[in-house]
Design goal:
heterodimer; A: alpha+beta; 16 helices; B: mainly beta; seven-stranded antiparallel beta sheet; globular
Chain lengths: 439, 79
């Protein structure tokens, strides 16, 4: 039996919530931007009026203001957005228990079994859309189809406040003429590769032989071919199953450019503490340390190296990050963003190979960090700090608490690299390439 | 229209439902709610807000009273 899958997308989510709470700006061009004083001033979301003026998600606020001088910029209020997102999920829960969130503003719903209770997928889509509008005061667009990929395409086709149905019979008419870029996981570089071999639309891709695509794109070629033909059978994962975490990372756009090894060292400790804290919270240890460096010209490099043993000790992570940094950066440019990520994760209480030598010290530092966690839980994050961080208070931050929205991967797991600049860290998760465009 | 936060006297029922009994305006005047005719989650597009909306009858007139998630009550006031 074919499935009935809905994809609900809250339109211009951040901007819609801001406009709801401030009716005075509803008829103006609005963009939600990060704080400019701490250099996070990029457009995170915008409403339709701003979109018409050519304001793009991800561009700096000053550039957006140039395009649209009357643009109203507001600061983000993530906790409010999370509350709205939860409220929307509560509405979905009336219809099914198979809900898979994809980012803060999108969800897949498998309503195959509920069709006997609430009517066809199309009926349910309309009901859900209207409930969201009435209860939450924001609009949603819903795609109805028999697989997740087409449901998502459907929700992108008509916006705002609309329902689009794509069936097994008519997908060739509606989906195949779309440009290749519209398909999930086709980003800038895949698009270029496909265009080079004459594939411009989703239909072109679907009609190409999979073996040819595999030669061009590797195993992705086959996955994309499956997507384009509507053969995708990925299940909608239950909302209460936590995705498997494959890596934990934090990055930070610094309030000022970093100019020397000492600055970098301070920031690595800030980031590593947050990463280590999150590892401990999830009862994980990691072995590979990855660093991301973005210079003042926005060029980005990533380097990684292995530790000797799995760890959740911040000092070990920071020291490794520093070591990698020193061998891979020549200071030809100053640094704008640094990131630390730990992968190769294992459960923290799995058995490990013990060392004959100085293991005492490791055990002590593990206990020390766990005690610090407890102190911080009781008296606040800044109640205990490394002396190193006192050298430059401007670099002080608590990324673990200040970032609450984690990027997700369609294939489950992976995305827990979160960045202070982008709520969905698009440079780390290529599939989110156009995701940021419709927050 | 203006979002006006108001003082409300509420009865908590045994099952946890909250029923507003009267609204106290900022000049101290109390308006008795004759009846609550409908309770549902809703947004106020007029003044900007979202929460549980109580449809109340006060002095023979229908009016809406909202309870926000932060436990504050508001009405859509004439500016």
């Amino acid at each position: 039996m074919s499935r009935t899958i809905l994809h609900c997308d809250l339109n211009n989510f951040y901007a819609s919530v801001e406009c709801l709470y401030n009716p005075a700006i509803r008829d103006k061009a609005v963009a939600v931007c990060g704080s400019q004083s701490t250099r996070h001033g990029i457009v995170l979301a915008k409403n339709y009026i701003a979109k018409k003026c050519g304001v793009l998600t991800g561009e700096p606020a000053w550039q957006a203001k140039k395009k649209c001088p009357e643009l109203v910029t507001v600061s983000p209020n993530y906790f409010l957005y999370l509350k709205f997102s939860n409220n929307a999920i509560n509405i979905y829960k009336k219809y099914t228990d198979l809900i898979e969130p994809f980012g803060i503003d999108e969800c897949w719903l498998d309503v195959t079994e509920s069709t006997r209770l609430f009517g066809s997928g199309n009926d349910m889509a309309h009901k859900i859309k209207n409930e969201i509008k009435e209860e939450l005061g924001v609009t949603a667009s819903v795609g109805v189809s028999y697989n997740k990929i087409f449901a998502k395409l459907g929700s992108d086709m008509k916006k705002p406040d609309a329902v689009t149905k794509i069936t097994m019979e008519d997908f060739k008419t509606y989906v195949w003429p779309l440009p290749i870029r519209e398909l999930m996981y086709v980003g800038r570089s895949t698009e270029a590769k496909l265009k080079k071999v004459g594939i411009y639309t989703i239909g072109n891709l679907a009609c190409t032989s999979p073996s040819f695509l595999i030669r061009q794109l590797g195993k992705w070629g086959e996955t994309l071919w499956v997507f384009a033909n509507g053969y995708d059978e990925m299940p909608v994962c239950k909302s209460d199953t936590e995705p498997l975490i494959k890596g934990i990372g934090n990055s930070l756009t610094t309030p000022r450019d970093l100019t020397c090894n000492e600055d970098v060292k301070i920031l690595f400790y800030v980031l590593s503490e947050s990463v280590a804290l999150r590892l401990r919270k999830n009862n994980l240890k990691g072995k590979t340390v990855q660093i991301t460096i973005k210079d003042s010209a926005m060029a980005c490099v990533e380097r990684q190296a292995k530790l000797d043993l799995h760890t959740f000790i911040s000092t070990e992570i920071a020291e490794k990050a520093n070591e990698i940094f020193k061998t891979s950066w020549n200071w030809s440019k100053n640094i704008r963003l640094l990131g630390v990520r730990v992968t190769d994760l294992v459960s923290a209480d799995s058995y490990v190979q013990l060392s004959f030598y100085n293991d005492d010290k490791r055990v002590r530092s593990q206990l020390l960090e766990q005690s610090i966690d407890k102190i911080r839980a009781r008296f606040g994050y800044y109640s205990v700090q490394r002396a190193l961080l006192l050298k430059d208070a401007s670099l002080k931050a608590n990324p673990a608490e200040e970032n609450v929205i984690h990027p997700l991967s369609y294939f489950g797991g992976s995305g827990t690299f979160h960045s202070k600049e982008y709520p969905h860290s698009s440079d780390v998760s290529p599939f989110l390439k156009k995701h940021g465009g419709n927050l | 229209m203006k979002k006006i936060f108001v003082e409300v006297i509420v009865r908590y029922q045994a099952d946890g439902t909250k029923i507003p009994l009267s609204i106290i305006w900022d000049n101290g005047r109390e308006y008795i709610i004759d009846k609550v005719t409908d309770i549902k989650k809703a947004a106020s597009l007029k003044v900007g807000g979202q929460g549980v909306r109580y449809k109340c009858r006060i002095l023979g007139k229908e009016t809406y009273l909202w309870l926000e998630a932060n436990e504050r009550w508001f009405v859509e006031g004439k500016s």
